[in-house]
Design brief:
Elements: H1 38-55, H2 59-66, H3 68-87, H4 105-138, H5 142-173, H6 179-209, H7 213-244, H8 246-252, H9 256-259
Length: about 280
């Protein structure tokens, strides 16, 4: 039989197209009047496919109408993803035999969430630099002397964050099996940096305020502890997702990303939805 979406030849009664990855209407070719061979397809594939759909009682049309919005969103994402892979020169020559072998679901939300976050932070950096230039002009250079070092630190922090977000996006797009270890190292460093920042603030307040420091320090730790708990819980939930997700396991086509993990290297791994491709 042939895919009703892209026209490629696929196994009879396939649930998904092994080339374009789209779901196929459920149809038994044998019951619809015999097989469609390559010669018939080349001479009149469109007519044969239309006849199949009519004999099915309009099932394909009903399916497409019922999921019109979902299909539109899916097609839009597929177009964007294809453009991204073309830009990054990512080419997978092997046919797709299951939807999980394509980027999708929560993994796609994470990947493009990191991309959007990095773009937003680039805009913030440009806005910060613009503010510095404006202050410098308004104060004849004095403003840059006073605020320059602070804004430089802010730009550097943004720069590191942009690099980390873009790195995660690219590693997932390229199916880099080191992505999970990179995520773990980033999380550890981030948690450590936040703890260190609060410690430095507490020491500064203690030296600056003397006997009144305990009140300010209490307020600082009152906000620090919930923040650290939130970061820790988020980090743990993300690790659990990468560990348990069949979609992630199928998408990468190997368990190497789990074997390279800092925290999950000795855990039992999920089985992929379909066998790994060579």
């Amino acid at each position: 039989m042939f895919c009703v979406h892209c026209g490629k030849e696929i196994p009879d009664n396939a649930g998904f197209c092994s080339y374009c990855g789209k779901k196929l209407p459920i149809v038994n070719v044998a019951e619809q009047g015999g097989d469609i061979n390559k010669n018939n397809f080349s001479n009149g594939a469109s007519a044969n496919i239309n006849n199949q759909q009519e004999n099915m009682g309009g099932y394909a049309g009903s399916y497409q109408n019922s999921g019109g919005a979902t299909n539109t969103a899916g097609n839009l994402f597929d177009t964007v993803q294809s453009k991204v892979q073309e830009t990054l020169k990512i080419n997978d020559p092997q046919p797709i035999t299951h939807p999980f072998q394509k980027l999708g679901g929560f993994l796609a939300v994470l990947a493009y969430g990191w991309l959007i976050t990095s773009i937003y932070m680039i805009w913030c950096v440009l806005k910060t630099i613009g503010s510095l230039i404006a202050v410098n002009k308004a104060t004849s250079g004095l403003g840059s002397i006073l605020t320059g070092p602070i804004l430089l630190i802010v730009v550097l922090i943004y720069g590191v964050a942009i690099y980390l977000c873009m790195k995660m996006f690219l590693m997932i797009q390229k199916k880099d099996t080191g992505f999970l270890r990179f995520y773990e190292l980033t999380g550890i460093v981030l948690l450590g940096a936040v703890v260190l920042m609060y410690i430095i603030i507490a020491i500064y307040l203690h030296k600056s305020l003397g006997t009144y420091a305990k009140y300010a320090t209490s307020a600082i730790w009152a906000s620090a502890i919930p923040s650290l708990i939130l970061l820790g819980v988020s980090f743990a939930l993300m690790l659990r997702y990468f560990w348990k997700s069949v979609r992630v396991r199928t998408y990468f086509g190997t368990d190497a990303y789990l074997r390279n993990s800092i925290f999950l290297s000795n855990k039992p791994y999920p089985a992929p939805a379909v066998p790994d491709r060579a």
